[in-house]
Write a structure and sequence with these properties.
With 160 residues, this protein is α/β, with parallel strands linked by helices. Helix content is 34%, strand content 23%. Helix 3 links the parallel strand 5 (73-75) and strand 6 (95-97). The radius of gyration is 16 Å and the shape is globular.
Length: 160
């Protein structure tokens, strides 16, 4: 399963060397934010993370998260609905369980029962947002924030 969530960044998180873009910070009407793109297994345990600026679209990181790993299904929300991504998944004999966007001319068929399992990734995001360091980004550099995110992922694995 892949998905993304937006994390608000503290005003002091900006200003690191290299600029906001290189530190995965973006500006929106709500202020500074970052986006965590995550891949979890069927039980909601974290596998990999990517960081981006808060205004980046989810589908830009779909292939980086998938990384051509072998699985039976790829579960994602409407933000990952892309014909080229679907085609690559089908090439590797992976069934995309991704609902189509509302503005699609031809509706996409997907298994609604398997899609109900997507709650595991939503529960994963709920778990990591219980950590103060993750729920609000205080780190100036993306490397430090990613380190905290990996540490939280390790703690989640150890609790199982």
């Amino acid at each position: 399963m892949i998905d993304a969530t937006t994390i608000r960044a503290h005003q002091h998180a900006a200003g690191a060397r290299g600029g906001q873009r290189s530190q995965a910070l973006g500006r929106s009407c709500g202020g500074f934010s970052s986006k965590i793109h995550a891949k979890v297994d069927a039980l909601g345990m974290p596998i990999s993370f990517e960081l981006s600026a808060g205004e980046c679209h989810d589908s830009r990181f779909s292939e980086a998260l998938w990384n051509e790993e072998d699985c039976d299904f790829m579960i994602a929300d409407r933000g990952y609905d892309d014909d080229s991504f679907r085609a690559k998944l089908m090439e590797h004999h992976i069934e995309p369980v991704i609902p189509g966007k509302k503005n699609r001319l031809v509706p996409v068929e997907y298994d609604r029962y398997i899609y109900k399992e997507r709650n595991f990734i939503e529960r994963f995001f709920n778990r990591i947002k219980h950590f103060r360091r993750i729920s609000t980004r205080y780190d100036k550099t993306s490397i430090m924030f990613m380190g905290g995110l990996i540490m939280v992922g390790i703690l989640i694995w150890l609790k199982l």
